[in-house]
Amino acid sequence: MTLPLALAGFTALGLLVYLVAVLVRPERF
């Protein structure tokens, strides 16, 4: 069950990066 765990981690990491980007540069969104 390594693949689902990797996908979940990648999704969480991507979402975290997106949220940080929105907080840092809200004028772009």
Automatic annotation (TrEMBL):
One of its GO terms (molecular function) is P-type potassium transmembrane transporter activity. InterPro entries: KdpF. Keywords: Membrane, Transmembrane, Transmembrane helix. This is K+-transporting ATPase KdpF subunit. One of its GO terms (cellular component) is plasma membrane. It holds the Pfam family Potass_KdpF. It comes from the Bacteria. The keyword Membrane applies. The lineage of its organism: Bacteria, Pseudomonadati, Pseudomonadota, Alphaproteobacteria, Sphingomonadales. The chain crosses the membrane at residues 6-24.
